[in-house]
Amino acid sequence: MNHFRLSLKPRRRTALSCALLIAPLAVGLTACSGGGNPLAASPYDAPAKVAFTAAKGGKADPNKPLEVSVKDDGGRITDVTATDAAGRYLRGELSADGLRWHSTTALAAGAHYTVRVSTEDSDGHPGRKTMEFDTTPADAGLHVTFGPDAGTYGVGQPVTAELSRPVKDRAARAVVEGNLHVSASPQAAPGSWYWVDDKTLHYRPRTYWPADAKIDVTSNLSGVRVQDGLYGGADKSLTLHTGDRIEALTDAGTDQMTFKDNGKVIKTLPVTTGKPGFDTRNGIKVVLGKESFVRMTSQSIGIAAGSSESYDLPVYWATRVTWSGEYVHAAPWSEGSQGSANVSHGCTGMSTDNAHWFFDHVRQGDIVQVVNSQGPTMTPFDNGFGDWNLDWAQWQKGSALGAGSSGTQADAVKTPASDPARLRPETA
């Protein structure tokens, strides 16, 4: 920012004749004069003749820069401040001689701007001029839809942003990401957006959200130029809340689930997980939903009817953790193996009473983690919310703003294309 410079040595010329040219506005300042002690002078406000040179209804074209200049007659610009109605500042650059100023960032589309220009004449007398103008609305809008729906979730629930149009260019991605804001109270650990693909972003903190927190998600993209011909639209903000910090840790090596509430062990439950060939996925998953009844069939995962592995079962108290059909659910048929052997087709099975208790004590977004299984690690994005399986350095590589980030998913994490476990529909 450039500040007033008051000259203590009087110069020969005692009047400032200035013309401010604001492209796409033209502004003329005339009859600017002053005398006496410049330190005691009040800023003058010269008469101005304003002419809009933009075509569309006298509104400015946001694709053109804002320019301000004064005639070289001893006066100069000392400061220019331009803000829109949303309070966003337009960055700019003042020439070394103080005769020209131009914006260095794009104007917002469909915005109302207030421009305050400070000047001084040859004797150092300060002057001010305030201008207002509107920019034409955007023909094409980029909209963002935040998720999940407003409500209360577990501390592992990522925030999602779905764009109405694909954004591939990294500079454009940086514009989008820089205008999507997430805050939490109590304050969360530092967080970041990750570009899952050209239209999808996920946001998570470095560690889980605080318990009993309020999370506000907003977009400041309205009118912002994302790239040539594409401007952000006005979109609805989102407020989420978190409940207790619920963590269910299943050790496939000991066939025990440890259930914690805010760090305190509440219950230890005997379980069974996937047998060889159907091993349960390792890693951190989050609860996606709950179904009191699900019908699970072996044919849905490619096992032919009549095979020794075939099944068709009514399953109760099923808590889903992957879209391909991995659940924590009641498995009364395997109670003899629960706590001692892994006999399922990939799900975590427990007694009906324990499954009912688990069902009643978890919500969407709660943490469900599996360790010591022989199965693959939960993939980050294609089968539920496996976001937490990326360490913080990997996660930051998915940001268009993060240090050393590539801005693409492929550079940050390789998702196996041949993992048959991630393609299973319903498993028991």
Would you kindly provide a written description of the structure presented here, covering whatever features stand out?
The protein is mainly beta. The chain folds into three domains: 15-134, Sandwich (Immunoglobulin-like), CATH 2.60.40.3780; 141-242, Immunoglobulin-like (Sandwich), CATH 2.60.40.3710; 246-423, L,D-transpeptidase catalytic domain-like (Beta Barrel). The chain is built from four helices and 29 strands. The protein has helices at residues 170-178, 352-361, 392-396, 409-412, and strands at 15-20, 25-33, 48-52, 67-69, 76-84, 92-94, 100-103, 112-120, 126-134, 141-142, 144-147, 151-153, 159-163, 180-185, 191-197, 200-205, 214-219, 225-227, 230-232, 238-242, 246-251, 256-261, 264-270, 283-286, 289-297, 312-320, 327-330, 348-350, 367-371. The chain has a five-stranded mixed β-sheet with strand order 23-22-21-29-24, with no helix packed on it. A hairpin with a 4-residue loop joins strand 1 (15-20) and strand 2 (25-33). The protein is elongated and about 95 Å long. The termini are far apart. The relative contact order is 0.12. Residues 1-22, 24-35, 46-56 and 404-425 have low confidence and may be disordered.
